[in-house]
Amino acid sequence: MLAVGAYENCKLYINQHSQELKKKKKVYPCITISRLTGSGSYEVSEKLINILQNNTKDSEDPWTYFNKELITKVIEDFKLPKAFTEYIVEDKYNHISDAVSELLGVKPSEWTILHKTTEIILQLARFGKTIIVGRGSNVITSRLTNCFHIRLIAPIEHRIKHVQEVFNFSKSEAMEYIKREDANKNKYLKSHFFRDPNDATLYHLIINTGKLNYDESAKLIADAVMGKFPNSFYS
């Protein structure tokens, strides 16, 4: 389950990849997921990780899930290995800072938590074998050729029911939660990255989890990713 030791898995992932920074490393895919609230990104990600892990070459390096809460926790603690932070600022990777600057449209002196979040997302995407949910990750990583971008949608009735089940909300509470969260997501992407999350051209694949269940959605994504990056998976 993703919920069990999720942050420990994130730290393990970072530690493991930090130790390999100086080595020439094969690039594996990264998947970003944008979603409407209540469309099941957690459930789809959990099933997707299981499929990909069983089919990825060098499976001893696990696929790892990062969402807003996990990325925020990493930044708050920021007990990242020295090698990890040095890797980000090395001259030969200046294009990362250039991309951050272009995306945010601000000077380095004005960078705050958004700058740090953006750099971490870019680096996690470069490492690969990651599923990154939200935080504008699809826009941030749009120039990386190893990234595959997903958008999950579902009818409002489906999303209300899902939120009710997950949080034990009443119907009115679920509706208010969805309205607030979707508004926040839209504002975040538009105000920081000047993009509309409903723009279909931002994604490789848009899936309606009201039409396909979570297992079917995960399998569809996995098949598309394995087809797009055949060298990373067993045939």
Question: In short, what is this structure?
Answer:
By secondary structure, the protein is an alpha/beta fold. It has ten helices and five strands, in the order αβαβααααβαβααβα. It has helices at residues 6-18, 41-55, 68-77, 82-89, 94-104, 113-127, 137-140, 156-167, 171-193, 214-228; strands at 30-35, 64-66, 130-133, 147-153, 205-208.
Written description of the protein model:
- The protein is an alpha/beta fold.
- It has a single domain (6-227), classed as 3-Layer(aba) Sandwich (Rossmann fold).
- It is 54% helix and 10% strand.
- It is built from ten helices and five strands.
- A five-stranded parallel β-sheet has the order 2-3-1-4-5, with helices on both faces.
- α2 crosses α10 (214-228) and α8 packs across α9 (171-193).
- The relative contact order is 0.19.
